[in-house]
Specification:
about 375 residues; alpha+beta; five-stranded mixed beta sheet; two-stranded antiparallel ribbon; 9 helices; rod-shaped
Length: about 375
């Protein structure tokens, strides 16, 4: 942790130095261009060194200014006090930086560039005039640092709040999905036990076998902790569930699956197909002894995955709008949570016979 803090501090200093270097070079370029336009002889290196000297001094002052902004931010209720503090600080720092820059520039001219006597005046104004003029620039520089820091701080706070809001929204969404998914377990268990209870009156040995199958099925359901699984895994779960129903209906129930191999690896919501199959059996075969066909299909349609469960039972009661039961309503809610408007659940009836339940999902593959 200490090493990370040191690295961040070093990075901050490098960024500050680089920023002021760019500013110094830009001002040096401005002076050079201005002197060129006036037809004056230009000492490129000297002009650049003197400009950089001034801005490097402000680079050294920058952490102090930032420290004051942190201590007296312009966002507190005591706004007038903070303004007063920064005004006084700017009036102190600007002349101090200008005086420091003057003597540093004078030292550079004499010791590095060996310029003495009247020639110094070509590059430096008299002390009083030079400090006064540069102090105005220094005051503006102080408030520029204050403004940039406050703007950066506001941006960071806004991004942090946005990140926290996104995390909270994601956690809430996952919590709602887990809640909806957990509601399927008791609903599915109740219906499965009801099926076994009916079978107990007809064939005890078969009912005992189904209890074992139900245990395996519940284990698979509880192990599915992800909200999305591959279609192949979902079909395996549905297959286990159909073992129970096939025992109950014997040879009357015929299951036909039409799923292309290339769609087995697409992602679907876990426990999404089982409620559709359960609904088809409950409202199709359980109420009509002539019904006997269950179709489970998957295909691509307009670049999306389309899952369909169809029975040849009596079909839903006619009406302006087909109503969902507990299982289908739960699936619809989970689709909304996972995919928003990109997914849908439809329940359609035929002309007096059959019923189709269709899930449409965005195409997402596991690899």
């Amino acid at each position: 942790m200490l090493q990370i803090t040191r690295d961040r501090g070093r990075t901050k200093w490098i960024l500050i130095l680089c920023a002021w270097t760019i500013v110094g070079l830009l001002f040096a370029l401005r002076e050079i261009v201005a002197e060129k336009l006036r037809g004056m002889h230009v000492e490129w290196v000297i002009e650049g060194a003197l400009e950089l000297a001034f801005w490097y001094i402000w680079a050294a002052f920058t952490p102090l200014v930032i420290g004051l902004v942190k201590r007296f931010p312009l966002t507190r209720p005591k706004f007038a006090l903070d303004i007063a503090v920064h005004t006084i600080a700017s009036l102190v720092m600007a002349p101090l930086a200008s005086a420091t820059e003057y003597f540093l520039s004078l030292g550079l001219l004499r010791s590095v560039f060996h310029i003495t006597g009247p020639e110094v005046r070509h590059f430096l104004s008299p002390f009083g005039t030079g400090v006064l003029l540069m102090s105005f620039t220094g005051i503006l520089t102080y408030w520029l640092i204050v403004g940039l820091y406050q703007a950066t701080h506001f941006y960071q706070v806004a991004m942090e709040r946005q990140t926290i809001a996104a995390q909270l929204e994601m956690q809430l969404s996952h919590a709602e999905l887990d809640n909806l998914k957990s509601q399927l377990h008791p609903h599915f268990l109740f219906n499965s036990l009801h099926t076994i209870g009916i079978l107990m009156q007809e064939d005890v040995d078969a009912a005992s076998h189904l209890l074992v199958s139900l245990g395996d099925l519940l284990r698979m359901a509880l192990e599915q902790r992800e909200n999305e699984i591959t279609l192949q895994s979902e079909l395996e779960f549905v297959g286990k569930y159909l073992e129970i129903e096939l025992t109950r209906f014997h040879d009357r129930l015929k299951v036909h699956m039409d799923v292309p191999p290339d769609l087995l690896e697409v992602y679907v919501p876990s426990l999404a197909l089982q409620p559709l199959v359960e609904n088809a059996i409950k409202h199709g075969f359980s109420v009509d002894s002539t019904a006997g066909r269950l179709d489970i299909t998957a295909k691509l349609h307009n670049g999306r995955v389309r899952l369909c469960v169809r029975n040849d039972g009596p079909g839903p009661a006619p009406g302006p709008r087909l109503r969902f039961g507990v299982g289908l309503s739960n699936v619809q809610s989970r689709l909304k949570q996972l995919y928003g408007d990109e997914a849908s659940l439809e329940l359609t009836g035929g002309d007096g016979r059959g019923c189709e339940t269709i899930i449409t999902l965005p195409l997402r593959r596991s690899h």
